[in-house]
Write a structure and sequence with these properties.
The protein is α/β, with parallel strands linked by helices. It contains 9 helices and 7 strands. The protein has one domain: P-loop containing nucleotide triphosphate hydrolases (Rossmann fold). Strands 3-2-4-1-5-6-7 form a 7-stranded parallel β-sheet, with helices on both faces. It binds guanosine-5'-diphosphate and magnesium ion. Magnesium ion binds next to α2.
């Protein structure tokens, strides 16, 4: 006789407990954490820049940039004058709740209203690890294709909001927005959906309004 031990279940169950603790602590401090997830190059940093420009007079903002190496994204964000920390994941393809908690402590968030975590570029691993965020936002960019909800269903299932970025390139890539929306909604009927361009700013007003509404709604939650 021997045991079969589902180690992966154990790892994510432990992470879920830690994430719940992070979420409670952030709620007590009134800090709204956004977990921003997407493939490498989908436009996370560019979207963040435009989002911060739109919101930095409304909220005190901080950014945690997570990557396996380099500080290029933190350098970009630092130019906006908001607090930023670069986190290196030591080769890991995602952030987990413990790494997030340590990043938040190192950056200092008590005097902030809104914190963005730019997760490691990946449509698979980050979806599996709850980091304790108030909302999960994902980006799919037009060049990646409208079939991605079929290939990476968990990411679309766990996200509260789907940004379709790079719509300025729709003339080049055959991206069917309606088909993508239907595929995403089949997995997650409540997912918010905003086509936009971080390059031109098209579509940003609706996304910014969604985020403001999400913060206001969350502040009223017990
Ligand atoms: N045409 C176009 N390019 C974009 C857009 N958003 C980002 N990019 C470009 O895509 C590349 C990757 O963007 P980046 O924000 O670094 O992606 P990240 O790796 O997800 O953070 C950069 O060259 C950006 O200038 C967009 O809306 N339209
Ligand atoms: Mg980036």
């Amino acid at each position: 006789m021997f045991d079969v031990y589902e180690t992966k279940v154990r790892v994510t169950a432990d992470n879920d407990k830690e994430a719940a603790r992070v979420r409670t602590e952030l709620k007590e401090k009134n800090v709204f954490l956004v977990n921003l997830m997407a493939s490498p190059g989908a436009g996370k940093t560019t979207t963040l820049v435009r989002t911060i420009e739109a919101l930095k007079d409304t909220y005190r903002i901080g950014v945690m940039e997570a990557d396996t190496d380099s500080a290029v994204d933190a350098e970009t964000i630092a130019k906006l004058g908001v607090r930023v920390i670069q986190l290196h994941t030591g080769g890991s393809c995602h952030m987990d709740a413990d790494m997030t908690e340590r990043g938040l402590a190192k950056m200092g968030v008590e005097d902030l209203d809104l914190v963005f975590l730019e997760n490691v570029g990946n449509l698979v691993c980050p979806a599996e690890f709850d980091v304790g965020a108030a909302r999960k936002v994902m980006i799919l960019s037009v060049p990646e294709g409208d079939d991605k909800p079929l290939k990476y269903p968990l990411m679309f299932t766990v996200s509260d909001c789907l940004l379709i970025n790079k719509i300025d390139t729709k003339v080049i890539f055959d991206f069917d927005e309606e088909a993508c929306l239907q595929r995403a909604r089949a997995l997650n009927p409540n997912i918010a959906f905003f086509p936009l361009s971080a390059k031109t700013g098209e579509g940003f007003d609706a996304w910014i309004q969604w985020l403001k509404d999400a913060v206001e709604q969350w502040r009223k939650e017990a």
